[in-house]
């Protein structure tokens, strides 16, 4: 009997990653809480999984609203990253990256089990420590700027 390719092997996930900004040069970062999936205590951009049948833009709008309680004022795709983590690789996802303009005064933490702080900052004055994937995402945002 022939073995099916990929059965029992880890899967590749698709994630919509977003850099929320105020349209005036500031970006929004969230500090990952103790309940976060990984790297608690680090500052990061937003992200979420693409659900079956969902467009990238719909996923971004849903995730921005779930995480920050606001609707995007503008959504622009700025890049794609192939993210391989671990040695050997134990986590693999494709990150479709977006710049998302939001109304800064309306942003709030809507998932306190994942985030315990929000900060608006200039891209040259970032808090520390950053999530291990945040730097490359912000590089795409800067390049698109």
Short key terms for the protein model shown above:
145 residues; alpha+beta; four-stranded mixed β-sheet; three-stranded antiparallel β-sheet; 17% helix
Share of helix, binned:
10-25%
Largest sheet: 4 strands, mixed
Low-confidence stretches: none
Pattern of helices and strands: EEEEHEEEH
Fraction of residues in β-strands: 35-45%
Radius of gyration: 16 Å
Mean pLDDT: 94
Distance between the termini: 54 Å
Quick summary:
The protein is α+β, with helices and mostly antiparallel strands and about 140 residues long. It has helices at about 55-70, 135-145; strands at about 15-20, 25-30, 45, 45-50, 75-85, 90-100, 115-120. The model has no long low-confidence stretch (mean pLDDT about 95).
Note down, in words, how this protein is organized:
Strands 4-1-6-5 form a four-stranded mixed β-sheet. The protein is 17% helix and 35% strand. It is built from two helices and seven strands; from the N terminus they run ββββαβββα. It is of the alpha+beta class. It has helices spanning 56-68, 134-144, and strands spanning 13-21, 27-32, 43-44, 46-49, 74-85, 91-101, 115-121.
